[in-house]
Amino acid sequence: MTSQEIRQKFLDYFKSKEHLIVPSAPIVLKDDPTLMFSNSGMTQFKDFFLGYKTPTAPRIADTQKCLRVSGKHNDLDDVGRDTYHHTMFEMLGNWSFGDYFKKEAIAFAWELLTEVYGIPKENLYVTIFEGDASENLDRDQDAYDFWKSHISEDRIINGNKKDNFWEMGESGPCGPCSEIHIDLRTPEEKAAVPGISLVNQDHPQVVEVWNLVFMEFNRKADKSLEKLPAQHVDTGMGFERLCMALQGKSSNYDTDVFTPLIAKVEELSGKKYTGILQDEKDIAIRVVVDHIRAVSFAIADGQLPSNGGAGYVIRRILRRGISYSYRFLDMKEPFLYKLVAVLQEQMGTFFPEIEKQGKLVAEVIKSEEDSFLKTIENGLIRVEKLIQQTIANNQKVLPSEEVFELYDTYGFPDDLTRIIAEEKGLTIDEAGFKAEMEKQKLRSKADSAQKVYDWVTLEERDENFVGYDQIESETYITRYRKVENKDGEFYQVVLSSSPFYPEGGGQVGDKGVLENAVESFEVLETKKENGLIISLINGLPKDAGAVFYAKVNASERKNSQANHSVTHLLHEALREVLGTHVEQKGSYVGPDYLRFDFSHFNKMTEEELALIEQKVNKKIKESIALQEFRNIPIQEALDKGAMALFGEKYGDSVRMIQFGSSKELCGGTHVKNTSEIGHFKITSEGSAAAGIRRIEAISGDKSEEYFNNLEKQITELSQLLKSKDVVRSIEKLIEENTSLKAEVDALKKEKAKGEIGEWKNSYEQKGNKQLLVKKTSLDAGSVKDIVFQLKREIPSSVTIILSDADGKPMITVGVSDDLAADYQAGAIVKDLAKEIQGGGGGNPGFATAGGKNLEGLENAYQKALNI
Description:
Elements: H1 3-16, E1 20-21, H2 46-50, E2 59-67, E3 69-70, E4 73-74, E5 88-97, H3 102-116, E6 124-129, H4 141-148, E7 156-159, H5 161-164, E8 165-167, E9 172-183, H6 187-192, E10 206-219, E11 225-238, H7 239-246, H8 259-269, H9 280-300, H10 309-328, H11 340-347, H12 352-356, H13 358-392, E12 397-398, H14 400-408, H15 414-423, E13 427-428, H16 430-448, E14 450-452, E15 456-457, E16 464-465, E17 472-485, E18 488-495, E19 497-498, E20 512-515, E21 520-529, E22 532-537, E23 547-552, H17 554-578, E24 584-589, E25 594-599, H18 606-621, E26 627-633, H19 634-639, E27 653-659, E28 662-665, E29 680-689, E30 692-699, H20 700-721, H21 726-760, E31 764-766, E32 769-776, H22 780-793, E33 797-803, E34 810-815, H23 825-833, E35 839-843, E36 846-850, H24 857-865
Parallel strand pairs: 1-2, 6-7, 12-13, 16-19, 32-33
Antiparallel strand pairs: 2-5, 3-4, 5-11, 6-9, 8-9, 9-10, 10-11, 14-17, 15-17, 17-18, 17-23, 18-22, 20-21, 20-23, 21-22, 24-25, 25-30, 26-27, 27-28, 29-30, 31-32, 33-34, 34-36, 35-36
Helix pairs in contact: 3-4, 8-9, 9-10, 9-13, 10-13, 14-16, 17-18, 21-22
């Protein structure tokens, strides 16, 4: 049975049991402050479990893309070193929202595994929750009784809270669970050791294949448990492990989920995969084929690699794959991007996003490979210098600060530094490196540390967003909770009638005030969490149950919504000018400016940019009225021509925004008429990533301010130049400046010639070597030319020049080629630069350093004399 058939049988089975089959949600979560990625099948249904949203159907099934690389659920370090851990994996799942419960869930699972898939019953074991006295939780007797009708009692195992009480995170929906484990060992192995003794013991052939979670509780911030409004079922079956079981393999990587990718890696690298766990080559191949899936689907869902947040996680996964292939597969050129085509062929039917976005995904990965391979090459040079310095100092251990700097600042893998050091008979300061890593984690944790208390619920009222129609409203606080972070103590409030738009869809959240006759609070930000619109205020009202007036900052909202509306017009214009391949890949919409990322593979020309501006401003001048369709069925919106963005999760009903021919699904706030935008001006265009261009622009008040500033600058220039023809006057100044610069350069060269003769005669003989330490006010370019000439002409020499040109300290070091093995210009300049509070570098023969402390040049001079 192929993996495609296994997946389809699962979906067909639950469809026959009256489950609605839904597509996978994006792997990247954009509007959930508690998670970066979908780390389980239930993530997209969290609001249903908490009662914030009504389920689209009481029974649902799907296959969900999941990613576990950070936080509580972190499998990254295990990937490649065993047969079953993955970063991205598929979770086959079926859900009941207040419909069936334990009895039916257990019956469905047993029937599917044993009758539809034909797994021998004697190979299966199940676990149930044994209870936990500390939380006053009883043994799950119901699950035990239901399992007894399907499997012998000696195959039902009590499991502790760690294994059999499922929790999504520190807080949220949770409940007892019942795991199904499969024994894949040979008959001889089973006869020697009973399978029951290996359940939950991390045995590679006795593995959990399905987890049936019975959602009964909500874990609160104070760690207490409260009953959910209704009982739910949440199941998750590891697709890759299921394929391993049904295809008779002993490793997930031996199934056809991975073998096509492995075959392609073998073809490209010339290395043969043998499946040996400890073999570094095989580990590298497993890492590559796992990581390419995670990275490709994340990019297809809209998350580009970057230096922060979810983008950093994706970049880290990709760089781990590149590092392993560089070190153990001898792949020194980009090649991972060539695996995307295999993924498209394998998974495009079930996950159309990889088919649609394949070209973009490959381009982004190739660009990242190019960049990181250069980082590795540059890092190798730095490591070699560090090793030479360590040997020169008669040391055997590379200093932890230097190794950490290579890792943290330059992105060079620490394990690669370790390998190179060992080849030279050196080690790294492991304890020191770990300490540096810990310091960094503590700094990061301190920056993001936040303590969130439980909600305090006031009078039960409806909680509605009214911000599409009004920016002020009478309201009540329905619930509040305290938040503590490095900036102090704040309160998050939910309002019965909120005009504050919550951050989302690229648009910033509203700010404003919450006030009444007695007191007033600043609304610092507004976000959405679990379906709730949450505004952050700078205090707690004395009477939280009183009536309040919520007022949005009108000018900021006006500018934000103008920028949001203009992104729709910009998107349409880009597609008209550049082609329909253009798709939005990210945006930022604030009161000051807008940023729009889109798929396009070439730098835009000045003519294209001008045409885009012209088209957008034409639509603005046409005074096109907003047509808003609220709660329109998604298919109807798509039939009307609305654009849906890849990487976004849409419900059955959506909001469509239309300005003439521009139609997009969007939840943001917008102008009522395009004339309110005023004027649109592109301020920059550049690359955001491979295949992704970025436009930054302004509109409305900021656009008017921009042109007013330009007019003011031109007026001031006219006055300074005493001419109304500003362009011609500046051209004349440039011509005069060029002529004067040529004269100055000629004078500098003459002065430098005079210096060379004097400096040649100033070398101090030190044994069989010569040292020159000289102060000068010559500029850096002249000093460089002289030093290169001297190190060529003066054998066995070290030349050190200390310059104070333009009031800035500069140290330049040159070492003649015959001394390069004994004296490193970079090491010398680094040591001397400490005296001027600076830094720099170069190569063994030439190096420079600048600094902040001009007075320190004298100390550097005295120090240099003693070399």
